[in-house]
Write a structure and sequence with these properties.
215 residues, alpha+beta, 7-stranded mixed beta sheet, 7 strands, 26% strand
Length: 215
């Protein structure tokens, strides 16, 4: 099989089917990047190609205004999902669903929603080829329309800074911070990073990363 330069990105919005359909849920996006190669006489694949997953990203979408309209407490929506989502919410929004003053100051325009780049994973054999940057850039540009504040966190949200850190964890977090800086994120507080797509050439940087990576 020879690589044919094919790429595709698939977006999946996770919903818990057992949950009350009248209640809002956190938007949990599962985004996958795959490379493809053509194979002759392949009858069981509709596009004539075999696809291999190389990277995967998880992003959380938070829309407090939408949740409030449904009579829900936005923090409860985040907390019901996971401790990580609750951590992001409490350091970004107040109880009423407004961006905290320190967070709001990071953005040129008023933001009503938030997109959290929670995790990006690349298969070991496909690392150092720009796939993580391509996937993250496409996901942010696709899922963060105007009025969306973008945040990220480089490491575990439950890490205790008072405890001795594992050297692997420190190296992992250092790699993640370099990755976030490469995407255009800037340090904020509580180990969160922010990305203002309306400021400077932030969106252009992501667009450049998205179109320059090829398998």
């Amino acid at each position: 099989m020879v690589g044919d330069g094919l790429l595709r990105i698939e977006y999946g919005l996770a919903r818990q089917l057992w949950a009350n359909p009248d209640e809002d849920q956190l938007d949990v996006w599962d985004v996958r990047l795959e490379t493809g190669s053509f194979i002759a006489d392949l009858d069981d694949d509709e596009d004539g190609a075999v696809w291999t997953a190389v990277a995967r990203a998880t992003l959380f979408g938070m829309d407090p205004e939408r949740q409030a309209l449904l009579g829900q407490l936005p923090f409860d929506v985040a907390d019901a999902h996971s401790a990580d989502a609750a951590y992001y919410y409490e350091h970004v929004f107040d109880a009423g669903g407004q961006l905290l003053p320190d967070a709001a100051e990071q953005f040129e325009w008023q933001q009503g929603r938030a997109l959290i780049l929670h995790d990006v994973r690349v298969a070991e054999e496909h690392r150092r080829q720009g796939f993580a940057s391509l996937l993250a850039a496409d996901a942010i540009l696709t899922l963060a329309p105007h009025g969306t504040a973008v945040f990220a966190h480089p490491g575990p949200t439950d890490r205790n800074p008072d405890e001795d850190d594992d050297i692997w964890q420190l190296r992992h977090q250092a790699r993640n911070t370099r990755f976030l800086a490469h995407l255009g994120f800037v340090p904020f507080q509580h180990q969160l990073w922010t990305l203002d797509l309306s400021a400077g050439d932030a969106a252009q940087t992501l667009a450049y990363l998205r179109r320059t990576v090829r398998p």
